[in-house]
Amino acid sequence: MRWRDRFLFCAEALYKAQAETGEIKGHYLNATAGTCEEMMKRAIFARELGVPIVMHDYLTGGFTANTSLAHYCRDNGLLLHIHRAMHAVIDRQKNHGIHFRVLAKALRMSGGDHIHSGTVVGKLEGEREITLGFVDLLRDDFIEKDRSRGIYFTQDWVSTGCYSRGFRGYSRLAYACSDRDLWG
């Protein structure tokens, strides 16, 4: 039950920081688990602690588990942050694999609120226009064809849920400034 101790520790620190600063704080409690049942236990416990957000590694957890968790979070007032652990094994292979654009479309249909999209500089480096293209796929209701961004046909997502992007903290100021210039 180490996850339970970790959740309690993080919730205590979160509420202490909120009390000291008067600011809203959050921490992504990782609900990813070996089974869907265990994942749901973690999400329920996070909700009972009153935290605002949980995290799920959608590739290691699976799309069906992610959809179940997305529905639970939506019904219970939790935000669902999507992490993409293991994605590089799938989408960074030049001669085989699945492009992240395809994974992004499947993820959008699966559900969530916020994704760790990576950046175009540093460790998570990717091609600028292609990264902008899959971020648009996750965020916008209507995407125009733009081959330079990896969008090969116009797509209308109508009311399918969308994501806001997020990223990890930066160890180098140059990366943060480059990302700020790109995303605003």
Automatic annotation (TrEMBL):
Pfam family, one: RuBisCO_large
Secretion signal span: none
Annotated ranges, domain Ribulose bisphosphate carboxylase large subunit C-terminal: 1-159
PANTHER family per record: RIBULOSE BISPHOSPHATE CARBOXYLASE (PTHR42704), RIBULOSE BISPHOSPHATE CARBOXYLASE LARGE CHAIN (PTHR42704:SF15)
UniProt name for this protein: Ribulose bisphosphate carboxylase large subunit C-terminal domain-containing protein
Native source organism of the sequence: Penstemon smallii
